[in-house]
Amino acid sequence: MIRLFARGGYPAPIVMDDAYADGYLGRPWIPIPCAPYKDFTSSEEIALFSGDMLTQHKVLRVNLQLSGPTGTSAEVVMRIGGTQYGPTWTLSSAAKVRDVNERIALPAGEFPYGTGASVVMWARRTGGSGTCSLRVRGIWGLNTINASEAT
Known about the structure:
- The chain is mostly beta strands.
- 0% of the residues lie in helices and 56% in strands.
- The strands form three sheets. Strands 4, 5, 7, 10 and 12 form a five-stranded antiparallel β-sheet that branches. It has a four-stranded antiparallel β-sheet with strand order 6-11-8-9, with no helix packed on it.
- It starts with a strand and ends in a 9-residue tail after the last strand.
């Protein structure tokens, strides 16, 4: 593992390669720019957020909030290059807010280091008649934390 430290040395490296995923960056973590929340009422999927990335990390950390009034349900998915990665995040009709903070490991064969891809968050209302909101707080590229994320 290659690590570069600040002049003061430990405790944390400022640049390093990924310990488990050869050829990927471990640090620094790099954000994928996103915009503020957007409202939606459509039962058809609509693209609400999009960003462009160059693959430098093997893992993406997705932090978002899905909200709506009681009695209204919704879902959101993340697609990269048109393919869904990660789960379908849902807001049940009994909940008003769903917070998501998840790690999504990217398949190495599909995302070699340096690959460019579009990241799009798609949402739709799945029940009820209220207005829902999606707030993507951020998507960051991260290092792997175990060998299974490197495959």
